[in-house]
Amino acid sequence: MKKADAFEFYRRLAEADPSPRTELEYVNPYTLLVAVALSAQATDVGVNKATRRLFAQVTTPQQMLDFGEEALRDRIKSIGLFNTKAKNMIAAARILVDYHGGEVPTDRTALETLPGVGRKTANVVLNVAFGQPTIAVDTHIFRVANRTGLAKGKTPLAVELKLEKVTPEPFLTNAHHWLILHGRYTCKARTPECWRCPVVDLCAFEPKTPAPKPKSARIAG
To answer: In terms of residue numbers, what domain contains 48?
Structure first.
């Protein structure tokens, strides 16, 4: 996608949603870290249901350690891979308490040393909690970037690096949110809703999905 088209692409998404936010519920940087780590192979809706009660009791790494792995496992058992995730979150809490003074690190390298925290999770935390211009490539963003031609790549990292290059500086901080929300609600995996897409004329995807035909009105008998 040309530089001018990329600018217009983001400008329209920004116009439609000037202040995008993550759909994960959180209280502070630590609870955001937990929520994002729990969201792997799970929906934001499902994670929010599990964490509302959890975050009413646990908002710091020390409180997580006091809460304990068994209690955490029971609280998040509705989420996929909950056994592994509970173990990782307790181990991560221990590292945060012992080596970071109970605070969430503000650099990617330190975040990625935490169990259960990969590059995508680290990027989300850096972006949402600390306002850094990172782009966390999940399945939605990977699809949108490749399908539209905004930033084609065979791996999430390749797409991330291309997005960092093609995304104009004014849009970098919120790019992650706009792309994920666009992929979640408009540029859907099975049937992209091209007929209502604000960037349809800038998109390389073909053929464009036509608007669904209205259902025929029933004839009164």
So the answer is: 29-128
